[in-house]
Amino acid sequence: MECGSAVDAAWLSVITLFVALQGFSFAIYQTGTRSCRSSNTLLVHALINFTVGSILWYFVGYSLSFGPSQKGLIGSLDDAFFWGLSGTNCSLHANSVPGILFASFEMMLAIITPLMLLSAWAEQINILGALIIYLLWPIFVYYPMTHWIRGKGWLHHHFGIVDQSGSFDCAYFNRFLRSCFHQDP
């Protein structure tokens, strides 16, 4: 089945590029608000996060987020390593764009989320601690939440929550977690 809308594919390509640049732009912006010691750390965090997040998304992320549902909680590993995705066949989740393009856009959202989370603790966390969060946060928090809402999991089926942009699992859950650890001076 060929995808019909070249305009949709072109637009999603541009948006994917913008979200990828947003992660590095966010890190550069944060360097201006931090001490000199942590400015380079933020840029290193962005590079490590982009690398680790891309590899993790390719291996299991897409499949856990958008694979066939396992009782609405998580996707199966049937689509691991982008199995079944191509540049010509339409995505099951976005009917007018190629599956590989949809997966790339969703990967950018998955990559930027832990970076936004760790920006609050940039001066307190070292690279090893950040790497652990970059590995564990997506697997245990982001991928399941993405599946619950955009991967047609239990929140989508039982409550009818529809989120096309990724704002629920990216922003609101990060805000929730930050509020859990917020300490007044």
Automatic annotation (TrEMBL):
It is a multi-pass membrane protein. Its main location: membrane. It is found in: Membrane. GO terms for cellular component: plasma membrane. Residues 10-167 form the Ammonium transporter AmtB-like domain. It comes from the Eukaryota. Keywords: Membrane, Transmembrane, Transmembrane helix. Pfam families: Ammonium_transp. One of its GO terms (molecular function) is ammonium channel activity. Coiled coil: none annotated. The chain crosses the membrane at residues 6-29, 41-60, 99-118, 125-145. Belongs to the ammonia transporter channel (TC 1.A.11.2) family. PANTHER family: AMMONIUM TRANSPORTER 1, AMMONIUM TRANSPORTER MEP2. This is Ammonium transporter AmtB-like domain-containing protein.
